[in-house]
Amino acid sequence: MNTKEKYSQLIKSEALRLGFLSCGISKAGFLEEEAPRLENWLNKNMHGQMSYMENHFDKRLDPTLLVDGAKSVISLLLSYYPSEIQNEDSYKISKYAYGQDYHFVIKDKLKDLLRFIQTEIGEVQGRVFVDSAPVLDKAWAAKSGLGWIGKNSNLITKQVGSFYFIAELIIDLELEYDYATTDHCGSCTACLDACPTQAIVSPYVVDGSKCISYFTIELKEQIPYEMKGKFDDWMFGCDVCQDVCPWNRFSKPHQEPLFNPNSEILSYSKKDWEEITEEVFKAVFKNSAVKRTKLEGLKRNISFLKD
């Protein structure tokens, strides 16, 4: 085993010990295939009011512009699939937001992994990324063999489905690189057929500005009236295209205590959500990604579903 292989195995073993589902490594460089795709998507305004998607176009496509001397992109998956889901008579929250805000949970694990690399291997510089910086995480995860990008534009893995977060560690150390896997969506169109707002405009292309997650989280103004009756009771995010994906029958509950939901999230009825107060909102969603919408945003979504 050469040094690069040895270091790569060491990093992957530690990633699994830290609770990550899997770890793949690819060579840092310009993402040639993604460049025209991203440009086309932005030109068609499929990002809606998510103007931050237009920023740092070059950095999004080239990690060497984010980290000096970057040689490797280490991609990691962390499951958030819950063991229990919400009460049936309820307004729905995307499963990723059941527990504590993943940004903080994952960032801590990534920092531990970077410290481990620096301790075991030596002077290695790098940065950790959890979807709050311009990194095309799905593209890097696919490039490093962790799954393929499905027709719903989510990363899908044969053994575990797609209910996981993707994060990266970009470092200036050369490692052994993994190969991309093949696409296993076949002729299936379950996600396209099930999307309540037809946001999956063609296989592998999602118009972000039509997605329920966009309307309930990103959009700050009133939800367009023509969307009335199409939200299938989702008040924060949407899991429909994942719930119907046949590969998600292999999803297994996560082992991360910080992702366990507050009991109210699972037990609340529609009436409970309709009557939620600021005090209850703060208690139920303490350290949660749902805080992004604030109570006002959640109430807007609920009244849109209710009226």
From TrEMBL:
Its EC number is 1.17.99.6. Binds 2 [4Fe-4S] clusters per monomer. TRNA binds at residue 220. It comes from the Bacteria. Monomer. The keyword Methyltransferase does not apply. GO terms for cellular component: cytoplasm. Its cofactor is [4Fe-4S] cluster; cob(II)alamin. It catalyses: epoxyqueuosine(34) in tRNA + AH2 = queuosine(34) in tRNA + A + H2O. [4Fe-4S] cluster 1 binds at residues 185, 188, 191, 245. Cob(II)alamin binds at residues 60, 131, 152, 155, 166, 213, 238-239. Catalyzes the conversion of epoxyqueuosine (oQ) to queuosine (Q), which is a hypermodified base found in the wobble positions of tRNA(Asp), tRNA(Asn), tRNA(His) and tRNA(Tyr). The active site is at 131 (proton donor). This is Epoxyqueuosine reductase. The keyword Lipoprotein does not apply. It is an enzyme of class 1 (oxidoreductase). The gene is queG. InterPro entries: 4Fe4S_Fe-S-bd (IPR017896), 4Fe4S_Fe_S_CS (IPR017900), QueG (IPR004453), QueG_DUF1730 (IPR013542). Belongs to the QueG family. Residues 173-205 form the 4Fe-4S ferredoxin-type domain. Pfam families: Fer4_16, QueG_DUF1730. Pathway: tRNA modification; tRNA-queuosine biosynthesis. Keywords: 4Fe-4S, Cobalamin, Cobalt, Cytoplasm, Iron, Iron-sulfur, Metal-binding, Oxidoreductase, Queuosine biosynthesis, tRNA processing. HAMAP family: QueG. GO terms for biological process: tRNA queuosine(34) biosynthetic process.
